Amino acid sequence: MPELMRAWATGETAGIIEQVERAIPVPGDDEVLVAVLVCGICRTDLHVIDHDIPVHHPAVIPGHQVIGRVVGTGPRVSTLQEGDLIGIAWLRRTCGVCEWCRSGAENLCPFSEYTGWDADGGYAEYATVPEAYAYRLPADTDPYETAPLLCAGIIGFRALRRANLPPGGVLGIYGFGSSAHITAQLAMASGARVFAMTRGERNRALAAELGVAFVAEATAQPPEPLDSAIIFAPAGELVPVALAATKAGGTVALAGIHMSDIPQMDYSSTLFHERDLRTVTANTREDGIRFLEIARNLQLSPTVSRVQFDGLGEALSALRDGHASGSLVLTVGL
């Protein structure tokens, strides 16, 4: 094994990511070393790179939708072995003893750590992950189609649960990027009708291609009241828009880790009539296990654009500018 690896790391200045050489990481006692095959490109990575969320680890290697093979194990690893195909997701470690961990809400653990934010992630040829937070994958897994499921899919699954969509209901989706286009397929598979309100012609074209019932600009009025809505776009100005479009007793879920400021709202036209406004904070490992099983059974298939390793900067710029469509996946070891 070589001593150095190629990687992309954040810079001291917001918005900067640069290709570097790093020492191949050494797995901790309870960790495995993974040779990265591919890594999904997530909007959360942009928030890390652009310092929209606080810097936790300077010059961190982003990337938290990793598919790779185990090539090394720490001395306390017992269930994974070299050659296993695994997925690495956003949630990297929790304390296991706080009130939230003990109640099954480990996503709210105040001591939680995250891949590509608190520790180096998958925009590199090698990465590490605690054994307990890795997802073992079937041998026939398609790395490109599965990588986006590890965050975009899991978070969309949790957001859909938080949105309290009734059976056969109408779901409004605001923003139609990687997570939204997977969530729309999941909702429609359950019998829901989906309305997509989003910027970008490519995003609207993808929504129409997937069979979404109504597609329009981000601030458009849907053709009928929504039972539930999920806002994937990091745009606070959409919160009163979505609430006003949601019927009495409905729920609006905010799915992002970062959002611009929410403007002042008129109470009677937004929150009144027992509309609920809820947030989504990361996910639990149980969310991941359940969603990956459902995705495999439903044969959910993200629309994927493959990005060569040297083209990461251009891909991130396209995502930032709203010119990307579907899911972007970085080729690393394939």
Task: Please describe what this structure looks like.
The protein has 334 residues and is an alpha/beta fold. The protein folds into 2 domains: 4-141 and 303-331, Quinone Oxidoreductase, Chain A, domain 1 (Alpha-Beta Complex), CATH 3.90.180; 153-279, NAD(P)-binding Rossmann-like Domain (Rossmann fold). The protein is 23% helix and 27% strand. It contains 9 helices and 17 strands. It has helices at 43-49, 99-102, 143-146, 152-162, 178-189, 201-209, 238-245, 285-298, 312-320, and strands at 4-10, 17-23, 31-41, 66-73, 85-88, 91-93, 113-114, 126-130, 134-136, 170-174, 193-197, 214-216, 226-231, 246-254, 276-279, 304-307, 327-331. The strands form 4 sheets. Strands 3, 4, 5, 8, 9, 16 and 17 form a 7-stranded mixed beta sheet that branches. α5 links the parallel β10 and β11 (193-197). α4 crosses α5. The longest helix has 14 residues, at 285-298. The radius of gyration is 19 Å and the shape is globular. It starts with a strand and ends with a strand.
